[in-house]
Design brief:
The chain is mainly α and 270 residues long. It contains 11 helices and 2 strands, in the order H-H-H-H-H-E-E-H-H-H-H-H-H. It has a two-stranded antiparallel sheet.
Length: 270
């Protein structure tokens, strides 16, 4: 399942979304994620669907590649939907023993499922169209005002960037270890839940060892290059807003205002 994680991976292709400033993409992602919690109307979710579909189309990233990350949250998605369907009070539709399915539960489960799916897809789209270096620069410039309060913005941005960069590396390492253990007779698919958990031990131990070794090598490499944090460092490619970024900010503002307006739209449910 870890091989299906797409957050942290970069998909190299030339598109309008790829050419946007990383600060613009960070702001757009935050606006989109906030809009999912602002609205509670079907009209709002329809608008969010259209906006997300348009961004995916502009990014030129294959839709199958983006949705592959949803497999990693399938269990959480099923649990969330089940709890909302059976535990939400309201007008009952039918009963399953002591459990009852209500109209309000079905609506809430549908909205929660869409919200969770869109959270993953929206976050994945940002990392798929932004390199780790751009993401670090964008985070650092966006949060630079916190330096006045003694917050080590550069260090935080660097740690987040390294963490995201390590995701595809660990995914690849996991795949290699699983293939090696399978060739030695390991079985990760059969048995009950406890047996599967025990079967993961030969996978997790070498994975943690490899992760710590890579972290140590990275620290030595940074020290060898005299890395001492962000103070006094310059950029080879300073971030500058262009016309397309200004247009994107205007579209974000319009989208957020419309999503807030949909909160007051009420559609009767039959």
């Amino acid at each position: 399942m870890i091989r299906d994680i797409t957050i942290g991976q970069y998909y190299p292709v030339d598109s309008v979304i790829h050419r946007l400033d990383p600060r613009t993409k960070l702001a757009g992602t935050m606006v989109f994620l906030m809009s999912l919690f602002v609205t509670s109307s079907p009209v709002g979710y329809i608008l969010a669907t259209l906006v997300l579909a348009g961004c995916i189309r502009l990014s030129r990233v294959p839709f199958k590649f983006i949705t592959r990350g949803l497999r990693a949250i399938l269990v959480i998605l099923l649990l969330s939907v089940s709890f909302n369907i059976f535990l939400t009070p309201g007008e009952p539709i039918f009963r399953l023993g002591f459990l009852k399915v209500t109209k309000e539960g079905l609506l809430l489960a549908g909205f929660m499922a869409l919200r969770l799916v869109y959270l993953v897809i929206g976050s994945s789209l940002m990392t798929l169209t932004t390199t780790p270096t751009q993401l670090t620069d964008g985070l650092e410039r966006s949060l630079r005002f916190l330096n006045r309060f003694g917050v080590p913005v550069h260090d935080i941005a660097m740690m987040m960037s390294i963490a995201l960069r390590f995701i595809p590396i660990l995914v690849e390492e996991t795949d290699k270890i699983m293939k090696a253990q399978t060739a030695r007779g390991a079985d990760f698919d059969s048995g009950n839940l406890i047996q599967r958990a025990k079967a993961m031990i030969p996978l997790l131990v070498p994975l943690f060892v490899s992760a710590f070794r890579r972290a140590s090598d990275l620290a030595l490499a940074m020290e060898a290059r005299c890395y001492h944090g962000g103070e006094g460092r310059t950029k080879m490619h300073p971030l500058q807003y262009e016309h397309r970024d200004r247009v994107a900010y205007i579209l974000m503002l319009v989208y957020l205002l419309v999503m807030i307006a949909t909160r007051f739209i009420r559609i009767p449910v039959l």
